[in-house]
Amino acid sequence: MHSTTLAAFGFLGLQLTDVAGFHVPVPVQQAHNMRSTPARMATEGTNESGLKKLTISSGDASAEVFTLGGCVTSFKVKDYDYLFVRPDAMMDGSKPISGGLPHCFPQFGPGVIQQHGFGRNLEWEVVGSTDDSVSLKLSDNEETMAMWPHPFECVYKVALDGTTLQTELAVTNTGSEDFDFQAALHSYFRCSDINKVTISSPKLDGASYLNKMKDPPATETFSGTKMTISEEVDQVFKGVTGDVSINDAGNSRVLVVSNTEGWADTVIWNPYGNEGMGADNFVCVESAQVGGEKLAAGKTWTGKMKLLPA
Questions:
Q1: What is this structure's pTM?
Q2: How far is it, in rounded angstroms, from Cα 70 to Cα 96?
Q3: Could you tell me if 131 and 269 lie in one domain?
Q4: The domain spanning residue 248 has which CATH number?
Q5: Where do the catalytic residues lie (predicted)?
């Protein structure tokens, strides 16, 4: 009788489970849904030179992240890439990647250690991923301690939400003493023609900026809320953050660089006329903390930036 009942349950597409010592039939589909389903992960691969990269996607958007330098090199929406990798970029690991969203850490520009620090030169560890996000980590080692003697941990998350790219950099002082650092995303944005680009922000008007094209560099005041580029530009705007819009009239596209936390400054750079760098087809609008951030032992600083195609 018992075996006949079990056979009947099997015929009806039921699966047995134990509840308080009794065999209770559970529909097979329900039993299947009760099992854990592995989360979808970012797609891992390499470029032609063997550099490791991860690809994430969300709807019509996709992004590509290299573990060398923790560098985002592509952000596409419907096949248009809003990021730019320079034609002179070395993609074989011999130099940092010149393009996309490279890191400047723990130094911006020239200083006591190598240009723009070591964050863009080193391999970042993948500590997590889904189909639409990836998290990378960089922490102190013998090489970094020889240049900059401070224990630290950087965790960088890149995520897609529809047609928005979100980045979050968390810097933690893992040592017992305070330290000062600088940071930036040396962001390269694609344009049809640099002469047709307008950069705008209400915070530009009256903003103080360091004009690094002057010899020696000079502090000047900007007038107006918009700027165009018709010569080589290297300007560090202190206190200009929030939303900065890049309007490319050549292809009727607008990209908003939205700094939502941590990034206090904006750097605008273009090596106008430099064909080898591809200067006609990009502008750098960089999310930065160039004034220096003092980080107490055990504390974390976070910088958040979003890219919003409009």
A1: 0.87
A2: 10
A3: yes
A4: 2.70.98.10
A5: 186, 286
Which residues lie below 8 Å from residue 88, measured CB to CB, with a gap of 6+?
Answer: 98, 276, 277, 278
220 is annotated as an active-site residue: no
Whole-number Å distance between alpha carbons of 207 and 204:
5
DSSP class of residue 140 equals -
pLDDT tens by residue, 214-264: 999 999 999 999 999 999 999 999 999 999 999 999 999 999 999 999 999
Is the Cβ–Cβ distance between 180 and 295 less than 8 Å?
A: yes
Which of 125, 177, 286, 293 does the annotation list as catalytic? Answer: 286
Residue 186 annotated as catalytic: yes
Please give the backbone phi and psi of residue 107, each rounded to the nearest 5 degrees, phi first.
-135, 140
Do 159 and 133 share a structural domain? yes
Which member of 186, 220, 231, 232 is catalytic? Answer: 186
CA 225 to centroid of chain Cα atoms:
26
Structure tokens at 35: 């099992």
